[in-house]
From TrEMBL:
Natural source organism: Agromyces archimandritae
Domain Glycosyltransferase subfamily 4-like N-terminal: 62-241
Name the UniProt record assigns to this protein: D-inositol 3-phosphate glycosyltransferase
GO MF terms, alphabetically ordered: glycosyltransferase activity
Keywords: Glycosyltransferase, Transferase
Length: 445
């Protein structure tokens, strides 16, 4: 059972907005020693590439970063590129084998990993072996480009060893150090110091990349502020909207849905308190889809608030069950305050759901107040309840307009645009960040 991923895994062992100038190349001599691909080489424009993607979290993990890395790998493979992924093993079994993700075969290099027990599922590659492992795999694969998804362990090793070999390096950030504080066991008095160290480490690793990306403009500004980097590209994680079925039938109930990891930074407790504040006449219910370390605490909170009979905790679900859950819902509530880009919100929008989201980080990038939903003051159960009422009490015409707004806005986040942009970065070509925060004038046909 899965939470909100769309993975099918089979193992076989053995026009424009940030019209920016090309990012300053950090290492102009970067050349893949396997192919001789150079920026501007006319012979390389259509040739399939050998891409090595590095990730600290990858399927079967269930989170936005893992999901993006998986979709990117599958999309590149579908276009004929030779795709390799280096990531921690999901169990005690490690090595190199073929895996099939979204119907596409990639080569997975699964590193020996340890479980991080303060977290409910996280496993990590051993930091003191990452440079050795990165060097070995790079020399075996001989990639044209290395694309790391996190600076923490795998990205650090890959960036160091790829830079030594003159291989093009692209870095993408999905991570906020603050999101991991509750799992580090670091005393609160030391947490600001620890966050500072994490951003310094990010600066070193991303500083080796020829191009740095993150999912939204706000996330790019955040990364630039805390690392001192410049010209960070805002490239949406993207979504294949065709995988979701908008439901235009009139709603038959007031069903609120939350989808995601059931952890502290998601602030699901705020959502439970907001549900308590809704008028009884609405007969509103809440479905919490996902699992995590706060599940039992939230079940207890629902009982304490006297709303346990109106809240369903589904745990992990299959892809089809998730699509059905979106169809059952009247509105998605996203109270999290630490989203660099919310794939769940994009999935809900592709399902023609209105969204009520915290006015924090990247969520305003997706939720346009009054157009496809409403933003509420982060942490305020009262404001969340008020904005949920605006959706649940909307007239049929107003509600339909919110649903149409979600479909218009999600059209800008097509996964194929995202993959094409990364292909250009891999080849050293100048790119223009896709427009993702303005809706087209009309609904797509």
């Amino acid at each position: 059972m899965r939470q909100c991923s769309h993975t099918r895994i089979h193992l076989r062992h053995g026009p424009a907005e940030r019209a920016s100038a090309p990012r300053t190349v950090r290492n102009p001599h970067h050349v893949s020693d396997s192919s001789g691909v150079k920026a501007g080489d006319p012979g390389s424009a259509k040739r399939p590439l050998r891409v090595l993607i590095g990730a600290d979290t990858f399927a079967p993990n269930v989170n936005g970063a893992a999901r993006f890395a998986e979709r990117l790998a599958a999309g590149l493979a579908e276009r004929g590129h030779d795709v390799h992924v280096i990531a921690p093993a999901a169990s005690g079994k490690h090595g190199t084998w073929k895996e099939v993700h979204e119907g596409q075969e990639i080569t997975a290099h699964r590193l020996y990993s340890w479980r991080w027990y303060p977290h409910d599922w996280l496993r990590f590659a051993l930091p003191w072996r990452i440079k050795q492992n990165s060097a070995r795999i790079i020399d075996e694969v001989k990639p044209d480009v290395v694309h790391f998804q996190s600076h923490i362990v795998v990205g650090r090793g890959l960036s160091i060893e790829a830079e030594k070999r003159g291989i093009r390096v692209i870095g993408t950030n999905h991570f906020m150090p603050e999101n991991m504080l509750e799992f580090t066991l670091i005393p609160k008095a030391w947490q600001d110091w620890a966050v500072g160290l994490a951003w310094k480490a990010a600066r070193r690793t991303f500083g080796r990349a020829e191009a740095v990306t993150t999912p939204t403009k706000r996330a790019a500004e955040f990364l630039e502020k805390y690392t001192g980097l410049s010209e960070v590209h805002a490239i949406s994680c993207g979504i294949d909207a065709a995988n979701y079925r908008p439901d235009w039938e009139p709603r038959t109930g007031n069903r609120i849905i939350f989808v995601g990891r059931v952890t502290g930074e998601k602030q699901i407790d705020v959502l439970l308190k907001a549900l308590k504040l809704l008028p009884a006449s609405l007969h509103a219910t809440l479905e919490v889809v996902g699992g995590g370390d706060q599940l039992k605490n939230l079940q207890n909170l629902a009982a304490e608030l006297g709303i346990a009979d109106r809240v369903t905790f589904t745990g992990y679900v299959t892809d089809e069950q998730l699509r059905d859950a979106y169809h059952r819902a009247s509105v998605l509530a996203m109270p999290s305050i630490a989203e660099l880009q919310s794939i769940v919100t994009m999935e809900a929008m592709a399902s023609a759901l209105p969204v009520v989201a915290a006015d924090a980080m990247a969520l305003p990038h997706l939720v346009h107040d009054g157009e496809n939903g409403f933003l509420f003051e982060p942490g305020s159960a009262e404001d969340l309840a008020a904005k949920l009422r605006r959706v649940l009490e909307a007239s049929p015409e107003e509600y339909r307009a919110l649903k149409e707004g979600s479909i218009r806005l999600i059209a800008a986040h097509d996964i194929q645009r995202t993959i094409s942009t990364f292909e250009s970065l891999y080849r050293g070509e100048p790119v223009v960040d896709p427009v993702t925060d303005a809706a087209p004038a009309s609904l797509p046909e």
